[in-house]
Amino acid sequence: MNARKANWAFLIIVIFYILGSLSMLFLPESVISNLLVTNLMLECILMLPVLVFILVSREKPGQFLGFHKMRPCTVLMILPFTFLTAPLLTLVNAISMFWVNNEAVAMLEGFQTGNMPFWQLLLATAVIAPLFEEITCRGGFYHAYRKSGSPVKAMFLSAMVFALIHMNFNQASYAFVMGVIAVLLVEATGSLWSSVIYHALFNGSSSLMAYMVLRNDPMAYADQEVTAELLMYGVGSYLVITAVCLPLAYAVLVWISKHEGREGFFTEMRKKKKDKLITVPLVLALILCLVTMTGLLNAVIVKLFDLLA
To answer: Which tens digit of pLDDT belongs to each residue from 87-131?
Structure first.
């Protein structure tokens, strides 16, 4: 699979995602109120087009996606790497909240996750989402773009795709940063498993903290007033924490790359290719995402329903 096919896959994903979201309006309440079922449906919409294009391109899925073995110590070192990069993601999330709401928290409140079994929440957010999204973005899109263009351009473009598939500006902000970090980890280890573990650890820890809060008070986040002063305090605090943690995260990443015999991965990523990565399907997908994220598409749909009624 090359960049051209990857862009077509992205456009199909966006169209199917919008249609899938609309179809949920006609599903039973017992289905759309179940986080596990809803999440599984949406994640399948993300992953299946990529897998189809990989198979059509006659690629070996496991080899193309990069599911290679890692040394046990590397797996263990992904844990400190995850928690050392988490402050940066929290910082970006806090900055985005000056303009938009915290969509992840709103989603968890909407599904009343404080009242659901924790294993269901963990399965939905820390197993299904990381596995499916990493196969889609770091496995499918990144390797397709890397095959056609320079690794650095492929990294930023696949991170943009990862950000946009969240379909809201809040999650897109830190998802983009997470996408860049995950690519660096994949390059340092040579295995997609590393980004799956990284993604799972981040989602799992975030879900655990939210679950504990909502279990105690289902309206804890809704009742909390997020003022500009509080956000400024949070941004300032996490700026300091991030400044301390990022150099340590970099040191861990370098250690991992040396342990896996890939210490030259930074040099490898600087290699340049002149193949075209941006095509018409990618631009159309980008426009559709922005129309959806700004609420324009929802407004048009509501107006059509009103006219039909």
So the answer is: 999 999 999 988 888 888 777 777 777 778 888 889 999 999 999
Q: What is the SS3 assignment for 100?
A: coil
What is this structure's pTM?
Answer: 0.91
Q: Is 73 exposed, middle or buried (0-12, 13-18, 19+ CB in 10 A)?
A: exposed
Closest C-alpha to 93, from 169, 165, 161: 169
Q: How many CB atoms lie within 10 A of CB 116?
A: 19
Q: 274 phi and psi, to 5 degrees?
A: -110, 10
What does the domain layout of the chain look like in residue ranges?
A: 3-308
Token pair listed for 229: 């002063």
Query: Using CB atoms within 10 A of its CB, is residue 108 exposed (0-12), middle (13-18) or buried (19+)?
Result: buried
Alpha carbons 303 and 287: distance in angstroms, whole number: 20
Q: State residue 135 phi and psi, 5-degree precision.
A: -60, -40
pLDDT (tens digit per residue) in 157-188 = 999 999 999 989 999 999 999 999 999 999 99
pLDDT of 86-98, one tens digit each?
Answer: 999 999 999 998 8
| Gap between the Cα atoms of 171 and 131, Å rounded | 18
Compute the distance between CA of residue 187 and CA of residue 196 in angstroms, rounded to an integer.
Answer: 13
Tokens of 192: 């997609």
C-alpha pair distances (Å), 163 with each of 54, 170, 236: 22, 9, 24
Which of 26-53 are b and which e, b meaning 16 or more Cβ less than 10 Å from the residue's Cβ?
A: eeeeeebebbbebbbbbbebbbbbbbeb
In the chain, what is the straight-line distance between the N-terminal and C-terminal CA atoms, in Å? 45
- Whether the CB-CB separation of 199 and 137 falls below 8 Å is answered with no
